Amino acid sequence: MEVQVQICNLQGLKIEMEIKNGRAVVELSLPALYEKNIDGFLIYLWDAEGELAFYALHPAGEEDPCIIQLQHPHLWDGGENPYLYRLEIYRRYGTERERLVCMPFPVRELTLVSGKGSLLNGRPFVPKPVYYEDVRAFRDGGEEFFWEQIERRLMRLAGMGANILVLGDITGVSLEESLILQSYCDRAGLLLIAGDNRFENCISENCISGETLFSSDGCPSAAYYLQRARWSSRPFVYVHAGSLQRQSDGLYRITVYSNQQKVALFVNGAVFGFQSDGPEFVFQDIQAKGFPLLLAAEAGGSNMSVTCYR
Known about the structure:
It is a single chain. The chain is elongated. A hairpin with a 2-residue loop joins β7 (85-93) and β8. It is mostly beta strands and 310 residues long. The protein is 14% helix and 44% strand. The strands form six sheets. Strands 1-8-7-4-5 form a five-stranded antiparallel beta sheet. The protein has a four-stranded parallel beta sheet with strand order 14-13-12-15, covered by helices on one side. The protein has a four-stranded antiparallel beta sheet with strand order 19-18-21-22, with no helix packed on it. The mean pLDDT is 86.
C-alpha cells in the first residue's frame, strides 16, 4: 500500500505513546485544532495491509485526548522492520469533512535506561547515528524542501546501516515540515532526533557527519561505502577506484571495502588474490602491463567491477 503524506494546520497537535504488556496506548491531544462550527473529528488508523485498526468520532469541545488502544500492535523496529500504520484525522462539518492528516504512523517506544543505554521496544538498541548541522543540507537552491531528494538521501543512509538521523538545528522548520520529515525517516527505518539531548551521550561516540558521505551532486562517496562496510549487515563489496596508487616498485595497490570476512580480487578477468579481515581490504603488488585496467571484486555473493584509466 502506498503511504501518502498530507499534513496541514497542525500547530498544537500532540501525540504521546506508551507500550506496555503487549498493548499500545496512544493519546491524541486535539483541542488546538478546533474551529468554530465544527462537529468534531473523525480519526482512522489503518494497518499496513489497509485494514482498519481503529476508528473514533471525537466530539467537538472535548478537552480530554482521544485514546487509541491497540492490542498486540505491529511494532516499528527500525530498518529490519519499519512497520507503519496510517493515521488520518478529519474535521467534521455535518455531512462534510476536511482532511487534516494523512501520514505514516509508527508504533514504537525508545527509552534511555541508566547503565543499559538505549532500548527500542524494550530491547537493546545500538545507535548508528548520522549528524547534519541543520536541514539546509537537504535543500537544493530553494526555500522549500525537495522531498524526492530527501527520500532518496534517507534511503541511502538506511542502506548504509544508519538507524538515527540527528539534526543539530531545526530553526525555521515548521511543524508541518517536521512531521513530513519524520514520516520520511519512519519509512526509511530511521529514528529522527532533533533538539533532544536525552540521547546525546548514547549517540556521540558513534556519530558521523553526513556531509562526508555524499558528493556535491548527491552521489555516495568512498566514505559512505567504508561506513556501510562497518554498519550494514547486507552483503556488499565496493572497489574504491580512487585509491589505485602506483607503488615505488612500479606495481599498483587498490583498496576494497566490504562487510564480508573474505574478498577476492580479479585483474583483467583473472584471479589475483584474496584478503581477509576488513572492512578495508588492501590488495598490493598488482601488475599493470597496460591501461585501461579491469578490476573486479567478489564477496559473500556480491560483486563489483571498475575500469581504471591510470
